[in-house]
Amino acid sequence: MADPEKVIDEKAPPTGGATQLEHVGNIDNVKGVKKVVEVRNAAYVAATTQSKLDPWSRDSLFLYWCCFVSFLCSCANGYDGSLMTAINAMEYYQHKFSSGTLGSTTGIIFAIYTVGGLIAPWFAGPITDRFGRRGGMFTGAIIICMGTAIIASSNVKGQFIAGRFVLGFGVAILTTAAPSYCIEICPPQWRGRMTGFYNCGWFGGSIPAAGITLGTSKMKSDLSWRLPLIFQAVPSAVVILAVWFLPESPRWLMANERDEEARAFLIRYHGGGDANSPLVELEWHEFKEGIEIDGSDKRWWDYSALFKTRSARWRSLMVLLMGVFGQFSGNGLGYFNTEIYGAVGYDNYMQFVLNLANSFCSAFGAGCGVALADKMPRRKVLVIGTAVCSVMLAINGGLSAKWAQTPDDQKNLNVGRGAVAAFFWFNIIYSFAYTPLQALYPVECLHTNARAKGMAMYAFVVGAISFINLYAGPIALENIKHNYIFIFVGWDLIEATLWYFLCVETVGRTLEELEEIFNTSYPVAASTRKNTVAVKESGAVAVVDQTY
Fold first, then answer.
1. What are 96-146's pLDDT values in tens digits?
2. Residues of the domain holding 126
3. Which family does the record assign (predicted)?
4. Which residues lie below 8 Å from residue 162, measured CB to CB, with a gap of 6+?
5. How many other β-carbons are positioned within 10 Å of the β-carbon of residue 384?
6. Within a domain: residue 507?
7. How far is CA 425 from the centre of its chain?
8. 544 three-state secondary structure
9. d(CA 65, CA 61)
């Protein structure tokens, strides 16, 4: 440790590739203290505190546009969630395909979308590594437009199912490339909000889908279901037109030996044009240490980077947990909202209205989660949020059971309303806890060289669990009805317990610095340790007590 009395020159530019820090043994030895805080990484705090990045500069606004284009990729995925929920209840759709609102045929139509999502990830990783994050987004968007053309022109059930498969294939490629792009272009101090906002694009798709289907539901023709399907291509069309005008990810550029372009990106968008910015120096130093020029990302068939070391296995475990828990916490019930509302007494039109209202409420929950994503510990949010989800589902299931067991002439409307209210609260809490982190947390946990293939693995797991949700869901609701909800009550409690013991905290650290955390014997404990630092009036940072 440095001499406690030593005071370094706060105006000197950082040297050695990272921000210099003053180390002191006692807070009384620090001059000009503005505040004392506990942080997870002192170098990160020093770099972000001293960097003068204007969030309203022209370059920052353009960076927001870049993130918005990736946001549209998430919209394409969210659109389908509300779309099929509503279309499945439409008279002319049922007349055309006679699939029924529940049962195995409906399960196949819903679940074939995820089958495309199960196959696509094995192509998505190599495409995104070989042609860049922009190339992955472009490829996925093209395939979605093809799927839209197939499904919107369907006159037979087989063509409709084929179109759903193609759509799922394209979405899986989009959702592999887009979150990687978003998190890799963001300054670290904006990472949580910007990448959390990406996954809120799900509501940017689901809300318009619910609104459009509400409007077309009264049409007395096949246009009632064809028009909403056509609109599914809109987000992808914008991505196709815009993506090649965006800068490529600096991490991908450096991994492909385009160092000058990568550094120019960092200076312009992370350093506010200052080549000596402490944040630029910190990131550049960590890029050089952490990115392998000849890694497994250069070999399309090689997924060993996900499992070959202890650190890699811990990282992959976090990805797998989010992939499973993020899809199997009861949120899959949302595909069958209209059936759930109908089961507690609401007519067909009110089911559409409630579907739209639920989308708005869920979006509100997700928005609150995004706003706090750079401050709230991931681990605490996941543990508490999942436990509360279990409570809300228990209330919903209990009230639904009471409604079902009460004779029609004795039913109390307040019981049905209470069941719907509990289901709304479940969706709000789930969206607060999971929606911002579903894209953010896996990407944070993955190393740059394994990020695209890791996200492909994540997409595969999401597709597999979604298939179970979408195929088994309508069958279960038809046969065991509200009792299906109680499965998730118990499962969510198990999830909360596993998050407590296994979740590695990632907030407040650079992506490269997390390597040190994952290399420890028990990353969960290491990730929760903090440094006490003093922030000076000048913006300089002094480490008061190094505990990690």
1. 887 666 667 777 888 899 889 889 988 888 899 889 999 999 999 999 999
2. 58-502
3. Belongs to the major facilitator superfamily. Sugar transporter (TC 2.A.1.1) family.
4. 150
5. 15
6. no
7. 20
8. strand
9. 6
Residue pair 477/499 in contact (Cβ under 8 Å)? The answer is no
Q: Is 413 exposed, middle or buried (0-12, 13-18, 19+ CB in 10 A)?
A: exposed
Task: Please compute, for residue 240, the number of CA atoms within 13 A of its CA located in the half-sphere on the CB side.
Answer: 15
Question: Do the bridges between strand 541-545 and strand 531-536 make them parallel or antiparallel, or are there none, so unpaired?
Answer: antiparallel
d(CA 134, CA 243): 6
Predicted local confidence at residue 245, as pLDDT:
97
Sole residue written with tokens 């739209």:
356
Angle at 213 between CA 211 and CA 216, to 5 degrees: 110
| 200, 193 contact by CB (below 8 A) | no
Q: Which of 439, 475, 473, 441 is nearest to 459 (CA)?
A: 439
Residue 2 lies in a domain: no
Other Cβ atoms closer than 10 A to 407: 6
Same domain membership, residue 530 and residue 457: no
pTM: 0.76
3-class secondary structure, 486: helix
Tens digit of each residue's pLDDT (9 = 90 or more) over 231-268: 999 999 999 999 999 999 999 999 888 999 999 999 99
Cα(195)–Cα(440) distance, integer angstroms: 6
Whether residues 159 and 46 share a domain: the answer is no
Give Dmax over CA atoms of the chain in angstroms. Answer: 82
The single-letter DSSP state of residue 532 is E
Count of domains forming the chain: 2
